Write the structure tokens for this entry.
Amino acid sequence: MGYSQAVLSVHDLWKTYHLGGTALEILRGVNLEVREGEFVSILGASGTGKSTLLHLLGGLDRPDRGEIRIRGQSLLSEDEAAVAARRNREIGFVFQFHHLLPEFTALENTLIPLKIAGISESKARGDARARLAEVGLGERLDHLPAQLSGGERQRVAIARGLVHEPALLLMDEPTGNLDPKTGDHLFRMVTDLQRKKNLTVIMVTHNMDLAGHTDRRLVMRDGVLEAM
């Protein structure tokens, strides 16, 4: 499979957390390049910094030093408001827990990134309906999260992550809160969407079987990423 230009470029990324008088060096010079249309999985033991790296890549936290570029543009040289706007425009997130607003329907939860971006109500609803149909929830638009199964809630989270057609989709243990059968079914749906839409995806997972179906597998070890 051939890839075009780099969607994500990371150079010499460092991150240390200070707890009391102890410095915990989590990332120690991470380098990474992900091309358009590539599906990359990141594995590693708990506490090795996989989720920390994902948060940095998504602009949810800042590194101590290093460079992150999305489509050639630095994510770190902007102020917080600019980073937030760019994050909402360029990056989609799917976490282990769906983080849906309980009082909002599936449709309303899905269109939130578009509303934040100032997209018109009619276009936002149309795009949200289309994404929900793509994840098999076209008949569940008006259901609240409490009326959906765990797998269906995570499908809504995926639709929300893709509703603005981001340059990069970041997934943190997307099947980790689901039973194995439901998780496998959800992952197959994600891989089908990834291929059909040429999505660029980075997934943190503990699941070697799922990682085996991605284009490239990396492992976080001693604060750096290594090829498997």
The CA atoms of residues 219 and 226 lie 5 Å apart.
